[in-house]
């Protein structure tokens, strides 16, 4: 659907003339239409800005948020002025007729930021959602979605619904919010829109089946099933359409294919509905095939065909009766949950169709892992601790009565039923502040207690000073008190020689073991509230717990707000919940009847219908707002303030001055505060503080906590108080709190130290010295408990605070930046790590300190099997500094000069000629040998192997790797041994010594696994996987890839993600999965890391798409003879392209470059092996017209295939020889 069609869609979902307001398309590249004409958005930043504003859904965005969207976490100097320029230009495009100096009506500036003020129906994503929603009534007319049928009288309604769904599907023009890249909020919204798109396509098929258009929907269903291999209802509809079309055998084949997929990927059997359909087909049940009165559609035969072809083509728009040509579908969005500001889904994402409860059982999810049984016990074996008798007395409801939440409460009680039977269940209660999440949880806790459950409750804390894993501390103690299970030490240190990631994983395992052990003693209800404030370590630990469940008597209930946070999206918890078949419970505003009931319960008087309706409209049905207004004694018909902040301000204003002062200070402390803390901050006695708080307690603003502590009755009350404070007063209170914490006892307590850093930071610039030192100490705490992300965040805050402290000496600034860089590298934030190194280097250069320059310039060159740089890129600043160091350091043997030489060789990998790199490496090696330091020599060799990683140096690199291996064995250094074994295995394979590689791989895995050298293990798996696939062991190859993916994801080894994608494509190729290979090609074509022109063209040839191969080759070309680790891989595939497309000159060039490497496998470094280079030499010779030479190489290639045990390569190559006659 183009801009003209979009402009005809109104907010109701129907079509009408243009309103004249601009319309924005985000379902693909960002486009703008004004007055029915497409408007060119010039710079990419304009598209990013417009898409970001559109995604906000009418919510103002601050300048800081917009700068982050445009430039990331570190906007350039002058970003504010540049942003204003972009806004001005965008306003000109949005309102070309607006007169100078008149107020903008579309892109407006509010007191909180910029907002794109467009009515509903002017953004295509909103139009699509409205169109799909408008067909819900038609879908409801189909009584049984598994056997779609309809009454004749309903045919017009179903016809109109299909047209609307086609119109919605036509809006997709590519990947939604494509210009926003992989920003977490964009990824989350893409997942929601992909679910919407699938729903629309699935509904079209269901309605067509109900109308008797069985054959017409087959093509679309086939494509939809290919894109949703685990979506059982889609496959059910496809089988039903085949059966009704008289193709019973094909229908049964489809259901068997689904069963195989579910068993292979999830270890599950199909749901009951699928099994029932299979039995009906086998019995030839008459009710399956015959309708007593099939309705007649008004659409012509032509208009019935594949209305959503390939789930990515443009469907037929309203009024059109001929299908448009199909367009390729964009790759499916990653299954990351989330929503935009005003969207229908929330923090924990949309519940996918496959995660809805199946009939009679728990929900299923895409990629549901097999349950992990405890060691020594099978999955179905009863627990070692006998079940205790449970108290089944009727539950006692809390007072006041729970109002308006009967359905949600019943769903939660059902979770307890299943948990009590040993079926672990998870639920997420999602809603905005004041929607009753805590109230609902309290009712559930009372019910669980009455049933004999052990209940454990924790909560995230809003204040940034909370230590990592704090939400889990109290639940672990409660489980210990209730069930006698040991409490894991959440503050344990790192064991000797233990990698931080391994220690983190061990701690997650301890937490999961504690919870599961408790569940073997008594059924457990674990409640964790306010997960939108939880730290990344807590969320990752929860994800690990959820993934490990199996046969446990456990219910896990989380609460959170509706807006997704980047921490949550990146933690992996939403995906773990979805795979576990969680229940998502969205809490929305109460309706009029429920509002009236709540007012009656709280105020003792029943409002009339009109008054209740007014109150519901003014409060949005928020139970908190209604409750506050009811308790305040404001009748619904009176002039009630429009928001809770005003209510809180009015109530606080009536309190004594001493009470107001105490509340202001307490709001800065946090939701919970102790009297001794508040007394110290206020400079009063504890008795005076309690006296001051009494009026607030009486008014319901504050409640008494445990012991001598208090808590605000609602978090939003604290937020309202805090917002009312002037910034200077807030800073004063933060400083006072920090002084109290610093001077009080227990400073080594984790929470206290984290809080200290938080309050010094919030105290402002005058306290920068205290702030950065406290942040470093808090980072030390995070490091001790393996909270890698928090350590990086705290160090970032320390660096920022340190910049405001003019008294910090250069070495201290430099050291902090290097530490931050290392923490970022461990956390997988490679860009931030490089930025920190660059800043450290800039400081050293500015100070002309050669020693500090050396430390910063060589810090990123430690031994690693994979290159850290992006392909064909170089850090020019680092290169210049290294060149300068080389000039200025004394021309004599010294460790610093040695490290500079090899670092310069490595940093020059993509920009220097091989001769220059070789000279640097030779000089560094010779100097290290003369110095005689074994450790220095080994580190130089490791870096040198990476610096000289190209085809012609393969024998030399193998010799160096063997020397490093010998040194590692002598030094008794397990991490170095794992690295040396990995290098040696990779280079043995590259040199064609497959037997030696095979012998080394188990040794690498053993040493790396035992000593937690996690970065090496994915290399092993990616080296192993292609050879398993070429040998025909597809299950082994997939298992190796899955292990690599798990390791890369768990330990955030960012540089390996592209290798995973390319390896997945290789495995799809050898397994013969054409559909998967085709979908992989588009993804590979978008990779920023590799130049895959020859790769994609060759793969198109292998699936028989010669013209697509030709188009790819003409567009992207090939990379021949590169002096990089990709040289043999790209040039070999270029030879295959030359043969397939008939390009003699390309064949001659490829042959000339490849011929020295005959007898070796084509590979991309340590991954993506393709078989003997001799295969591709034969292709190149045949393309050049020399069939005799081609035949000679081909014979040798076949001998190598047999010797290496890779029959699938031999089969493919034999077919190629036969087709081309050489």
Automatic annotation (TrEMBL):
Residues 1-23, 292-392 are annotated as: Disordered. Keywords: DNA-binding, Transcription, Transcription regulation. Residues 322-335 have a biased composition (Pro residues). GO terms for biological process: phosphorelay signal transduction system; regulation of DNA-templated transcription. InterPro entries: AAA_16 (IPR041664), AfsR-DnrI-RedD_regulator (IPR051677), BTAD (IPR005158), OmpR/PhoB-type_DNA-bd (IPR001867), P-loop_NTPase (IPR027417), Sig_transdc_resp-reg_C-effctor (IPR016032), TPR-like_helical_dom_sf (IPR011990), WH-like_DNA-bd_sf (IPR036388). Residues 7-20, 349-361 have a biased composition (Low complexity). It holds the Pfam family BTAD. Residues 292-302 have a biased composition (Basic and acidic residues). Residues 7-118 form the OmpR/PhoB-type domain. Residues 7-118 bind DNA. GO terms for molecular function: DNA binding. Belongs to the AfsR/DnrI/RedD regulatory family. This is Predicted ATPase. It comes from Raineyella antarctica. The lineage of its organism: Bacteria, Bacillati, Actinomycetota, Actinomycetes, Propionibacteriales.
């Amino acid at each position: 659907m183009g801009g003209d069609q979009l402009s005809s869609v109104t907010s109701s979902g129907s079509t009408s003339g243009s309103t004249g307001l601009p319309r924005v398309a985000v379902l693909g590249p960002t486009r703008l239409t004004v007055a029915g004409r497409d408007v060119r958005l010039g710079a990419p930043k304009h598209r990013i800005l417009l898409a970001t504003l559109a995604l906000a859904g009418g919510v103002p965005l601050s300048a800081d948020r917009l700068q982050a969207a445009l430039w990331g976490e570190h906007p350039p100097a002058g970003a504010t002025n540049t942003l204003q320029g972009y806004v001005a230009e965008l306003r000109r495009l949005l309102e070309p007729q607006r007169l100078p100096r008149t107020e903008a009506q579309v892109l407006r500036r509010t007191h909180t930021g910029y907002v794109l003020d467009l009515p509903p129906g002017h953004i295509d994503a909103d139009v699509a959602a409205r169109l799909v929603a408008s067909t819900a009534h038609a879908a409801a007319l189909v009584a049984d979605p598994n056997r779609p049928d309809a009454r004749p009288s309903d045919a017009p309604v179903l016809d109109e619904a299909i047209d609307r769904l086609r119109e919605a599907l036509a809006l997709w023009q590519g990947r939604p919010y494509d210009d926003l890249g992989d920003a977490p909020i964009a990824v989350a919204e893409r997942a929601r829109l992909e679910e919407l798109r699938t729903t629309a396509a699935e509904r079209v098929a269901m309605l067509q089946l109900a109308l008797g258009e069985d054959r017409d929907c087959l093509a679309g269903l086939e494509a939809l099933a290919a894109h949703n291999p685990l979506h059982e209802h889609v496959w059910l509809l496809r089988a039903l359409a085949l059966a009704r079309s008289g193709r019973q055998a094909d229908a049964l084949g489809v259901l068997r294919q689904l069963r195989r997929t579910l068993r292979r990927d999830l270890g599950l059997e199909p749901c009951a509905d699928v099994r029932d359909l299979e039995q009906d087909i086998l019995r030839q049940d008459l009710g399956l095939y015959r309708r007593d009165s099939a309705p007649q559609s008004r659409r012509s035969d032509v208009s019935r065909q594949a209305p959503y072809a390939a789930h990515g083509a443009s469907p037929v728009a309203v009024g059109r009766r001929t299908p448009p040509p199909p367009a390729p579908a964009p790759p499916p969005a990653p299954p990351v949950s989330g929503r935009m500001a005003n969207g229908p889904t929330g923090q924990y994402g949309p519940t996918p169709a496959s995660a809805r409860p199946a009939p009679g059982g728990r929900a299923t999810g895409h990629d549901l892992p097999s349950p992990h049984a405890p060691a020594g016990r099978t999955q179905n074996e009863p627990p070692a601790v006998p079940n205790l008798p449970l108290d089944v007395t009727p539950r006692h409801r809390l007072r006041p009565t729970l109002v308006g939440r009967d359905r949600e409460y019943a769903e939660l009680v059902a979770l307890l039923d299943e948990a009590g039977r040993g079926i672990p269940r998870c639920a997420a209660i999602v809603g905005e502040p004041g929607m009753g999440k805590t109230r609902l949880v309290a009712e559930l806790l009372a019910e669980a207690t009455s049933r004999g459950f052990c209940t454990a409750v924790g909560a995230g804390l809003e204040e940034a000073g909370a230590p990592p894993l704090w939400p889990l501390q109290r639940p672990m103690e409660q489980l210990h008190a209730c069930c006698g299970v040991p409490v894991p030490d959440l503050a344990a240190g790192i064991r000797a020689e233990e990698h931080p990631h391994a220690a983190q994983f061990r701690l997650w395992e301890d937490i999961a073991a504690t919870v599961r052990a408790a569940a073997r003693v008594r059924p457990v209800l674990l409640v964790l509230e306010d997960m939108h404030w939880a730290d990344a370590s807590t969320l990752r630990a929860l994800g690990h717990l959820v993934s490990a469940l199996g046969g446990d008597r456990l219910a896990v209930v989380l609460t959170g707000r509706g807006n997704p946070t980047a921490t949550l999206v990146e933690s992996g918890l939403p995906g773990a919940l979805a795979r576990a078949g969680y229940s998502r419970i969205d809490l929305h505003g109460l309706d009029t009847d429920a509002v009236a009931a709540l007012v009656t319960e709280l105020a003792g008087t029943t409002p009339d219908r009109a008054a209740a309706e007014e109150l519901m409209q003014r409060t949005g049905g928020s139970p908190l707002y209604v409750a506050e207004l009811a308790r305040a004694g404001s009748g619904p018909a009176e002039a009630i303030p429009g928001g809770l902040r005003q209510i809180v301000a009015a109530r606080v204003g009536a309190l004594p001055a001493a009470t107001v002062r105490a509340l202001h200070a307490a709001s800065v402390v946090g939701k919970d505060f102790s009297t001794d803390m508040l007394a110290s901050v206020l400079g009063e006695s504890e008795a005076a503080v309690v006296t001051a708080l009494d009026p607030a307690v009486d008014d319901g603003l504050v409640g008494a906590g445990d012991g001598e502590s208090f808590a605000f009755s609602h978090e939003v009350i604290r937020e309202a108080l805090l917002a009312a404070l002037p910034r200077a007063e807030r800073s004063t209170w933060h400083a006072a709190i920090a002084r109290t914490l610093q001077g009080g006892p227990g400073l080594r307590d984790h929470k206290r130290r984290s809080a200290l850093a938080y309050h010094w930071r919030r105290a402002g610039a005058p306290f920068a010295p205290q702030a950065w030192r406290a942040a470093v100490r808090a980072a030390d705490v995070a490091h001790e408990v393996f909270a890698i992300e928090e350590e990086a965040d705290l160090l970032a805050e320390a660096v920022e605070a340190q910049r405001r402290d003019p008294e910090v000496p250069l070495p201290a600034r430099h050291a902090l930046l290097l530490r931050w860089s290392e923490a970022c590298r461990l956390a997988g934030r490679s860009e931030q790590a490089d930025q920190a190194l660059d800043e450290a280097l800039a400081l050293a250069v500015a100070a002309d300190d050669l020693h500090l320059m050396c430390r910063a310039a060589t810090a990123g060159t430690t031994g690693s099997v994979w290159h850290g740089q992006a392909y064909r890129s170089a850090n020019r600043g680092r290169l210049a500094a290294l060149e300068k160091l080389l000039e200025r350091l004394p021309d004599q043997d010294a460790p610093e000069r040695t490290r500079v030489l090899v670092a310069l060789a490595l940093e020059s990998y993509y920009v220097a000629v091989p001769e220059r790199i070789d000279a640097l490496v030779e000089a560094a090696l010779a100097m290290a040998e003369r110095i005689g330091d074994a450790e220095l020599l080994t580190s130089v060799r490791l870096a040198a192997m990476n610096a000289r990683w190209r085809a012609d140096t393969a024998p030399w690199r193998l010799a160096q790797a063997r020397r490093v291996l010998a040194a590692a064995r002598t030094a008794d250094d397990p991490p170095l041994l794992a690295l040396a074994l990995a290098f040696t295995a990779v280079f043995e394979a590259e040199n064609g010594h497959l037997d030696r590689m095979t012998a080394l791989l188990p040794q690498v895995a053993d040493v790396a696994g035992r000593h937690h050298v996690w970065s090496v293990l994915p290399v092993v798996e990616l080296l192993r996987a292609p050879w398993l696939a070429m040998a025909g062991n597809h299950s082994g190859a997939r298992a190796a890839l899955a292990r690599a993916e798990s390791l890369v994801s768990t330990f955030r080894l960012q540089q390996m993600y592209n290798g995973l994608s390319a390896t997945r494509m290789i495995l799809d190729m050898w397994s013969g999965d054409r559909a998967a290979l085709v979908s992989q090609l588009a993804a590979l074509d978008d990779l920023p890391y590799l130049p895959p022109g020859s790769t994609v063209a060759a793969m198109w040839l292998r699936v028989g798409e010669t013209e697509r191969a030709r188009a790819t080759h003409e567009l992207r070309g090939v990379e021949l003879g590169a002096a990089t680790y990709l040289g043999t891989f790209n040039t070999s595939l270029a030879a295959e392209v030359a043969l397939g497309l008939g390009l003699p000159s390309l064949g001659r060039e490829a042959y000339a470059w490849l011929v020295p490497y005959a007898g070796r496998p084509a590979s991309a470094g340590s991954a993506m092996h393709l078989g003997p280079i001799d295969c591709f030499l034969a292709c190149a010779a045949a393309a050049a017209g020399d069939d005799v030479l081609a035949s000679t190489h081909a014979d040798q290639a076949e001998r190598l295939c047999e010797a290496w045990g890779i029959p699938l390569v031999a089969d493919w190559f034999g077919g190629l020889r036969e087709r081309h006659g050489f």
